[in-house]
Amino acid sequence: MQAVSLPLIRLQALQQALAQGPEQASLQDQVRRAAGVIGAASCSVMLLGSEGEGEPCMSIHAHHGPLPSAALQAAIRRGEGISGRVLASGNALLVADIRKSEFAALARRGTELGSSFVCAPIRVEGRIVGVLNAANGKDAAAFDETALCLLQLLASSLGGYLQVRHLRHLLDSRFAQLALLQETEGAPPETARLAYRNPEQVARILARSFFREMHRAGFGSAQILSAASELIGQLNHDIQQEQQAH
Questions:
Q1: 140 phi/psi in degrees, rounded to 5
Q2: Contact 34, 134 (CB under 8 A)
Q3: DSSP annotation string for 11-79
Q4: Is 136 helix (H, G, I), strand (E, B) or coil?
Q5: Closest Cα partner for 200 from 47, 42, 31?
Q6: Torsion of the alpha carbons at 104, 73, 27 and 1, rounded to the nearest 10
Q7: CA 28 → CA 22, 24, 25, distances in Å?
Q8: CA gap 49, 43 in Å, rounded
Q9: Strands 42-48 and 127-137
């Protein structure tokens, strides 16, 4: 990252944004504050989803300001588009004027947005889990190295926020704590200590523990399948609510 001079007002805005602890703000609040710090008309957080059987994709989990509907529904793989390139390379990107850049054909733009774009990777303990995007307004000045520097700092803060949020969810669940302890019993200390870091791994651990507990309680295959169907129903309900919120 190049050394840049940060205007005092930007430093004050950054200090206020970083001073808010994870327990004091939602992901939506974090994105809104990031937009305010760098003066963006639109700002969004894209996070990697489940790996499943194929390559994981990023999708928007929170945004502030106008975004094209196609962007809200997009699933981006590594190397695809601007965000996908940042995800793959791990390097933040500043595009002063997207119309005059190599990314002109890749950009999605709404009528309320300008042509300047910045994107920074979000890391959790060195692992890239998503990106933080920002676009300027239609008649606003183009982003510069100062904006890029600020966005990278904000993306770093977001990584810490996501990690703390994940840990808090685990601590709130007695079942999750017991499942992790049982799964890592007898494993090397390092394996047990790092188990919580991968949400996908934790989800699989909880699923296995859920199955074992139902089987131990005497439930048959039909009852376990019914419970799994209930989980899928709850998931579909949550997905519909998220789509309506967007």
A1: -85, 160
A2: yes
A3: HHHHHHHHHS-GGG--HHHHHHHHHHHHT-SEEEEEEE---TTS---EEEEEEES---HHHHH--B-TT
A4: strand
A5: 47
A6: -20
A7: 12, 12, 8
A8: 19
A9: antiparallel
Which domains, and CATH codes, for the chain?
8-168 (3.30.450.40), 173-245 (no CATH)
Whether the Cβ atoms of residue 39 and residue 6 lie closer than 8 Å to each other: no
Q: Cβ(44)–Cβ(67) under 8 Å?
A: yes
Give which of 134, 144, 21, 26 is closest to 86, Cα–Cα.
134
70/109 Cα distance (integer angstroms): 10
Percentage of residues of the chain with pLDDT beyond 90: 24
| pLDDT tens, residue by residue, 58-114 | 999 999 998 888 788 888 999 988 899 999 999 999 999 888 888 877 665 556 788
Hey, what are 179's tokens? Answer: 């499942």
How high is the pLDDT of residue 111?
Answer: 62
Per-residue pLDDT tens over the stretch 1-56: 444 445 555 555 555 555 555 455 688 888 998 998 898 999 999 998 855 456 78
Helices 199-216 and 221-245 cross at an angle (nearest 10°) of: 140
The pTM for the full model equals 0.66
Q: Which two tokens stand for residue 132?
A: 């933080």
Cα atoms in the Cβ-side hemisphere of radius 13 Å centred on 233: 6
At a CB cut-off of 8 Å and minimum separation 6, what does 153 contact? 14, 18
